[in-house]
Amino acid sequence: MRTHRALSSLWLLFATGLLATGCAPEPPTDGPQSESQSAALQRAQSCDDLEALLKQDALTKMNAQVDAMIASYAVYGEIRGGGGVIGVDNGVPGGVGASPNQGADPSAPSPAPSGGEAPSGGEGAGAADDGGGTPTYSDTNTQVAGVDEADIVKTDGNNIYVLHGQSFYTLAAWPASSLAVGSSLAIEGQPIEMFVADDKVVVYSAVNGASIYERAGVEPRPVYYDYVLVDSMVGGGIARPVPGGAGVPGGAPGAPASGGGSTPMEPSGSDEPVPPDGGADEPDAPASDGGADEPDAPASDGGADEPDAPASDGEPSDPDAPGDDVPGGAPTPVGEPLPDDAGGPWGYAPLTKLTVLSLAGGAPGVIKELYFEGSYTSARRAGEDVRTVLNGGAHGPALVYWPASLVEYPETAEAWTAAFEQLRAENTAIIEAAPLSTWLPYRFEKEGDTVTELGASCADFYVPGAGTTSYGLTQIESIDLGDLDETPASTSIIGATDTVYSSHDALYVAARGWQEPASAGAAGEPFVVSDATHLHKFDLTTDPSQPRYVASGSVPGHILNQFSLDEHNGKLRVATTAIVPAEPRWTTSNSVFVLEAQGAELARVGAVTDLAPGEHIRSARFFGDRGYVVTFLQVDPLFVLDLSDPAAPSVTGELKIPGFSEYLHPLGDGHLLAIGRDADDSGRVTGLALQIFDVTDPSAPAQVHKETIEGPYASSEAEYNHKAFTYYGERGVLAFPLVSYDGQTGAVASTLELFNVDIEDGFSRLGAVDHSGFFTTPTSGCYYHGSADVRRGLFIEDYVYSISHGGVLVNALDDLATPVASVALPAPETWTACGDGGVAEPAPMPAPDGRE
Predict the structure, then answer these.
(1) Would you say 122 and 732 are in contact if contact means Cβ atoms under 8 Å apart?
(2) Model pTM?
């Protein structure tokens, strides 16, 4: 006999995920959002106000879950087979008692691993050679010129900066023949991305913060599973426990909780949305982003209340308690062992670390160390202002979603209802008794051996309407590299977000709307899908060091990635794909909305709707008064939009060709450079493809050049990560990493591919740079895990530099066969085992002149 613990979440999935079977679908309207989907944020006026708002949100979501469970008996009560014991496996795939994966839809998505102005990256953004020794170079490919995005490789033309394994490396890069390691510095944890700004470096890493908690005298939160929205298109948003945290694979056994952030879901590869009965494949899921002026709120510099810390007995603390009391529980004395449940079964307490390095003395040195409870989402830098967006960090009290008394299926709906009503009462009591600190994230600063907890101001928290957003917390942490003595300015939004867009003037975060759990109701009752995206705007001009909340709005559907968002002349353009219930199969609808801040509302001022019904947006890009949207089902419609009149946007032209583009890049005036997939006339996706589109005449877009990279198993990181796509406008050369697999021999290769790109002549392949010489045992397993992959390519003058886990090669553009110089880097300690169980070790490349 299995206990209810083994089955509670299975039943939760089963009951609320399929309740709509047999119900007639009712498509969502394209009109104003209902009150339940309002995105408006309310700034907390005090700590008491914040606590009340948080508890109301938690109660609303908990009640919705319990209501759905109670209603499920009407539909599924009879499947119990006459009062059987909960947990008996009757051999029904996917049924009660089945293993978590048994009977699962093989096309269901899984958690993804872990961003209109012309972009700056790849356009020869570096300074021209003025005779002073600064050569022309390519920069990180960014969405908005002048707004930097963090990446794993950076250059200033003279040096290359690389995050490799668990270290930060500087390499002398110019002249090209002098390529050499200048210095290296170990980074705590697993590095993620970085910025380089003059003589300062900002490195993000995922760390085990158990020792940080201990030094700060703070007890990590007890480990439990947070409930986050998964498969939000099925069953209206089933809350399922999902493990995982900063730097911890989501599927790792016993991994700590994620802090409540919603987990972006990978596309399943299908183009059909899922009806409630699971009769179709699942669609791509979201990526992973007229009122009065904002009311006066307490200032965040001490004018607002600071959150009360609970006393050691778990009761709310005395408001007059000393300021160094520990939020979330009594302090653990420094030097004492952590509690058994602190930081997980292996003493793991995930934190995201922000390390600031100084390059002023030549070798890098640490000058600031900050730690945040929450997972790194994205970051932007404008000048010396660095803004980091994190998700998670807010748990709330641990609730129970299965009655402890419910060991056997009850014979009556009344008994079932009574058990869940008792559960509701217990959860309500837990929520009401929880101190405010249960929800608030931890922040720490380390100086030498001293770790200090950084307080939170309640006035820096913004809360949406109760039950309108996904579980979790979004933190925007801002630092000024010119004034590192200041504490990071923090702005927090209740609810997880998964997409970030920033212009020079504003930062936007996008979040999935809360999906109401389905309820059974009578036969024929409509099943309503609330597929919405909430958008929150923050001003960056009034005080660049502290993003100021401006307004919020909602649009139907979900966005693909950061390129689905763009601001122009103060108006936000948003491209979405919405799920539309229909018979016999659900379908989709694509739209572009124009929003404008009107008081505290991002109000819709214009829209183009019903683009390519039944298809999905595969890429989008906005430049000035133009918008470009690519959808796909069997062919690739490229839509050209005229956005010059925000109140009346329109489609001016459309081009239908096989395949689809996954990333669109500006190529001079009136042309687009694209990377994506080719397809045959039936819509079967084939090889990788490069294309040039002429959009000079917006009413007649045309494909003028196409280059297909043969092989169904060829893929590039540039298809889903624009930072791996480097177009060097100074020389008209494109570089991107390519992994290819030979189905006949099983051979796997990873190269940096280079193409000349010309509007008139199209594409001409320059060749490829292969890093296999760095690896003594390059097996298929190594390539599969990304160990031997070429990661990035960049340009300095007439040379291309390619970076892999093995090292760095530099080649002249007119001779890709012979390296000018090479540097081997140590094998990262974090590599996974390769094919035969060994780890690929980098082997030194021969010197350019053949000397040993």
Answers:
(1) no
(2) 0.78
